[in-house]
Amino acid sequence: MHRRALEGCERILGPHHPGTLSSVNSLAITLGDQGKYAELESMHRRVLEGRERILGPDHPGTLSSVYNLANTLRNQGKHDESELMHRRALEGREKILGPHHPATLSSAISLATVVQLQRGRGESGVIRRHLRRALLRNPENTRPQSAGHALRRSQKTAVPPVHHGSQSSARSAGR
C-alpha cells in the first residue's frame, strides 16, 4: 500500500516534493518492520537527500532524517557511519532546537549508545553525564519523563544487542 501511495506521489507531486518524501519515510518504516534493512537504509538516504535539498541541512525535518538513518545504520552494525550521523544530528539539534529539547536529548542518548557499542563506556559516560546535567537544568522540558526514562534505560543496557527489529526508536524520536 505504501508503495502505491509513493508511486502516486512521485507521479503527481514529483520525486522531491515534501509530500513524496513523507511517503518514502512511511515506506521506510514499513520496510524496517519487515526486516528489509538494505532497502530501509536506501529509503532513509533518499529522504535525507531530498530534505537536505529542499529544507536545508539544519532544518528540524532534515535532522530527524539524519537521526533515522543513524539508527538504521546502528541497527545494521555500521557503527562508524552511525556515530558520524548521530554526531551530526546532535550538533544540529543543539544548535537549532537547543540543548534541552527532547529531540536533542534523544540524539545524545543514541550517540552515547553507539559510542558504547564501539568503544565501551568511556566516552559514552561523558555524553550521558552531559545529558543528565541537561535534564536537571531544563525547566522547560515538556517531556522530562520520556527523556529521563530513555537515559535510565540506556544506562541499564551495558551493550545493547544489534537487532534488526522495528524502527520504533526512529518513530518515537521524531522523523
TrEMBL record:
Annotated stretches, region: Disordered: 136-175
InterPro entries for this protein: NLR-like, TPR-like_helical_dom_sf
Bias type Polar residues, positions: 165-175
SUPFAM superfamilies found in the cross-reference section: TPR-like
PANTHER family: AAA+ ATPASE DOMAIN-CONTAINING PROTEIN-RELATED (PTHR46082:SF6), ATP/GTP-BINDING PROTEIN-RELATED (PTHR46082)
Protein name: Kinesin light chain
